[in-house]
């Protein structure tokens, strides 16, 4: 008979939890948690100059980025108090929870108001640009329409003082004109083909006379 032997491996203990000890913004800038703004600003400027990528090389950008992030978190009181309380830093805002909350609320509302004002300004600018575009387009279309009427009047030998209604078809020269003037009732009764033939005859006569046609 064969016996089954259980081999038990020795107990493996899990690694002990090591607290995540990240450098604080104050440590990055080398200032005390109770430091005032002038001291924080001075340290930030000096470190920014020393670690700028243009000075030490762009491959060492991380250190410069860490300094900018640290300064961003604590350079104004609303962000600084939120940063200190979220990380339990014993500093300027350690025992001022209520004051910090009120400051954060006012700061958030101010930011929201600025965002609304910027959005309204963008909308007003967009509306003004749309209106300007519509006005320019209308003026351009009106100018083109008047140019067509003037050219058609010259081609068909119509005095510019007459009131005309020009209707253009798919054919370049197929233009019919209705003259709204007294004593022209017979012309109004003519069919479109007759008026078209008369227009062609006038064009042919003018070509024979050596006059240039305006198209």
TrEMBL record:
Superkingdom of origin organism: Eukaryota
Basic and acidic residues: bias regions: 118-130
Location of the J domain: 24-87
Region (Disordered): 118-146, 162-194
InterPro entries found in the cross-reference section: DnaJ_domain, J_dom_sf
Protein name: J domain-containing protein
Organism field: Cytospora chrysosperma
Taxon lineage: Eukaryota, Fungi, Dikarya, Ascomycota, Pezizomycotina
């Amino acid at each position: 008979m064969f016996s089954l032997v259980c081999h038990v491996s020795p107990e493996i203990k899990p690694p002990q939890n090591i607290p995540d000890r990240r450098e604080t913004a104050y440590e990055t800038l080398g200032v005390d948690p109770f430091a005032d703004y002038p001291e924080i600003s001075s340290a930030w400027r000096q470190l920014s100059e020393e670690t700028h990528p243009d000075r030490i090389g762009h491959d060492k950008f991380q250190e410069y980025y860490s300094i900018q992030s640290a300064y961003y978190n604590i350079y104004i009181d609303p962000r600084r108090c939120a940063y200190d309380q979220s990380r339990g830093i014993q500093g300027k805002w350690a025992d001022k929870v209520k004051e910090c909350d009120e400051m954060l609320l006012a700061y958030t509302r101010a930011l929201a108001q600025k965002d609304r004002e910027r959005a309204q300004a963008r909308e007003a600018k967009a509306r003004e640009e749309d209106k300007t575009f519509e006005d320019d387009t209308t003026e351009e279309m009106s100018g083109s329409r008047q140019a067509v009427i003037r050219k058609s009047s010259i081609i068909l030998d119509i005095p510019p003082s007459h009131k005309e209604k020009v209707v253009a078809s798919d054919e370049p020269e197929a233009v019919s004109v209705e003259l709204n003037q007294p004593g022209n009732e017979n012309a109004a009764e003519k069919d479109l083909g007759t008026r078209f033939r008369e227009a062609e005859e006038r064009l042919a006569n003018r070509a024979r006379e050596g006059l240039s046609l305006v198209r």
